[in-house]
Amino acid sequence: MSFLSALFGRRGTAHAETVGDPVEYKGFVIRAAPYKSEGHYQTAGIIEREIEGVRKEHRFVRADTYASYADAVTFTLSKARLIDLQGDRLFADVDAARDAVSNGA
User: Domains in the chain, please, with CATH?
Assistant: First the structure.
């Protein structure tokens, strides 16, 4: 089951969980969004940033799972520090997808 399906309540083993409070980090906003899958909480989250007046969003899922929601939130926030490696490049796929839709692809 995909991350988006889990977030938006599609059928399957994953169930939507509450998206966590925003955490600011180096000009980005991180929101933990772990979801329950097969009895554990899947590491997942959202990274946002405003660039040139446009709000960009990057959603991510990692293979790590935890027994408790709190542990999954803590780990998700630490994993989101991938910002340190990629910075604004996180949004390159988002821009490419938007451009493809705009161009009728």
Answer: 3-102 (3.30.160)
